[in-house]
Automatic annotation (TrEMBL):
It comes from Dicrurus megarhynchus. One of its GO terms (biological process) is mitochondrial DNA replication. Coiled coil: none annotated. NCBIfam families: ssb. It is found in: Mitochondrion matrix, Mitochondrion nucleoid. CDD domains: SSB_OBF. Pfam families: SSB. The lineage of its organism: Eukaryota, Metazoa, Chordata, Craniata, Vertebrata. This is SSBP protein.
Length: 149
């Protein structure tokens, strides 16, 4: 397989100073997210009038670290932070499979993009929401299987 040099690949994403304002240059950018975690709730499927349905579920990712004088030594306590992510699946085939097979406790890998939006809640208050729009979901286990650490 023929590979392009790294500078040619990076050139697609970086705009050079030599580009002038008068020339039409479309910069490429990237919005990619990869998450590996456990599902926090069974998926739900929603459909707003006139729009395609969407499968929504939450995903927990954990960050762990050792507190104390040295991370190498066995001393100190282990701390953990859990972050919850809202996952939305719009792609028709993936949306249906995700709704059918993902369950609370399942370990999955999600690839997608991050999306920031606003909505109005029941009390007519505008709220902000961060959502991961999934392009790919890989099933690593079902909810009954617990991975050994």
């Amino acid at each position: 397989m023929w590979r392009r040099p790294a500078w040619q690949v990076l050139r697609q994403f970086v705009r050079h100073d030599s580009d002038t304002v008068s020339s039409l240059v479309l910069e490429r950018s990237m919005n990619r997210v990869q998450l590996l975690g456990r599902v926090g709730q069974d998926p739900i499927m929603r459909q707003v009038e006139g729009k395609n349905p969407v499968t929504i579920f939450s995903l927990a990712t954990n960050e762990m670290w050792r507190t104390g004088d040295s991370e190498v030594s066995q001393g100190g306590d282990i701390s953990q932070k859990t972050t919850w992510h809202r996952i939305s699946v719009f792609r028709p085939g993936l949306r249906d499979v995700t709704y059918q097979y993902v369950r609370k406790g399942s370990r999955i890998f999600v690839e997608g993009k991050i999306d920031y939006g606003e909505y109005t809640d029941k009390n007519n208050v505008r709220r902000q929401a961060t959502t991961i729009i999934a392009d790919n979901v890989i099933f690593l286990s079902d909810g009954s299987v617990r991975d050994k650490v």
